[in-house]
Amino acid sequence: MGLDDVLHALRADPARAAVFSDLDGTLSLIVDDPDTVVPVDGAPQCLTALAETIGTVAIVSGRPVAFLERFFAPPIELSGLYGLEHRTGDRLLVDSTAIEWLPVMSTVANDARVVFGTEAVEDKQYSITVHYRGADEPFVADVLAWADTVAAETGLDARSAKMSVELHPPTSRSKGDAVEDLLTGATSAVYFGDDTGDLPAFTRLAELHAAGSLDAYAVVLVRSHETDAELHEHATDVVDTPEEVLQILQSMLDAASSS
After folding, report:
1. Are residues 146 and 132 in the same domain?
2. What range does the domain containing 119 cover?
3. pTM of the model as a whole
4. Do 46 and 105 lie in a common domain?
5. Which DSSP letter does residue 39 get?
């Protein structure tokens, strides 16, 4: 399986094709300040055109929907916070577990800002991320130890991410669940990702193909010097930059438009 198989399936039946992509490191460059992330030029427009042509196009991200919708308008679907939030059309749906844990998340976010400073803490309301890209080893060790302690004391779920650690409500929701929820009726799918948080989506597409639910699938890894080796094991295709992702998306749009 891989991109050639997906392109063939898309040409044959664009209405039953699905495209999923992460944002950070996939459609955008990795930057020191997460608030300054923007998709590469042309990516939102290409995805919008693709969403108007094929069955499903979705951004599946650890970012909250409120951040994603700065760039991506309907008919693009938005799955934020690893599936805890979902925007379809003008409706925003939030997982009930996330809502229940909101007071705890608020307290932990405030504590993190006191300990590590506001610049290191990304408060996503229903989860938080503490970044340590470029920090010295003692700071990194302090962040990781703090996250483990908070998780043990509160019951929150601590997860490693790219040069950061995240705290989430204790739910089994993942990007794999978010992708599967959006695959209704699809017979081909591609997922673009770059981080360990994308791994459940990588493996879910392979599982669905093995079970006969998908005729064709591709998992495209956007690699960097920070890429976890396990991601390479599950990728069907590998690229090096978000610009290459945009080129693939454009080729998919061309294929769908010519069918």
Report:
1. yes
2. 98-168
3. 0.91
4. no
5. B
